[in-house]
Write a structure and sequence with these properties.
Length: 325
Amino acid sequence: MKATAKAHTNIALIKYWGKRDESLILPMNNSLSLTLDVFYTTTTVTFREELFQDEFLLNEQVIRGEQYNRVAAFLDFIRRETQATSLHAEVRSTNHVPTAAGFASSASGFAALAAATTRALDLSISDQELSRLTRLGSGSACRSIFGGFVEWHKGTEKDGSDSYAVQVQPAEDWDVRVAAVVLSETTKKISSREGMKRTVDTSVFYPGWLKSIPRDLEQIKDGINQRDFEKVGSISEANCLRMHATTLGANPPFTYWHDATLRVMQGVQAMRERGISVFFTIDAGPNVKVLYLPEDETIVQEMLRQIPGVHDVIVSRSGQGVTYL
């Protein structure tokens, strides 16, 4: 009863921001992401008779507190839903993602955990079912089951049975590059979950954000199908800015941006003025992800590295879905 799985993180181009059900992690809107090949988590799950409780090791460190509780609760859910075992598990994860700094480490983490757990229990489930299950650990993780461009359907059923991700376009079909601009690797002060809830409950801008999503989704999927990078990039950037605007309308207001975040955004806009096709997007954190095409990789990297406050620039391509090792 042992299995190892590898899952990559993803960057949302049409953002997931807000839940209609906190316990089932059901989103207020559909979202669309690109899976990234450079950031990933590898997890081994082993069910053992001698364990009296679940054990969780991350990067060789024993984990306690909230992180442990989330993993243990997710394992409890799988045990309860599948009735495949009553045994506790040893979970060993290696995370190749800066944790809690806006690079969606929970997406690759819970996708790898769900895949390894179901494989260790020898459960025969489809990728769609695995995506729906993974959602219960972390919302964005349901998109990391698949590679390339992926859409997460919010669903309408109260039990969440129709809320899962589907692949829009495989990774190998279009070589879109993403430069992850590292500005800070420190843990953010306001978690994504806390930030979402405050925004949904109090932001005067949130209704306008929701109203904009259907058109953004329709246009960006059309851009993906036509390989229209300008269209995909501009919609992604505008959607990002609208999402972050909702946090400024919350009570009390907050932002995930640092001074260097704004400098990178301005740097990307300056590159466009020079005729370089490049766009930015930012999740719930200060770090910026910059979208561009392969032919512009050298100039984009050079210009990003010159911006004050940039610690590193990590290049990623479109990544694959979950794999088993």
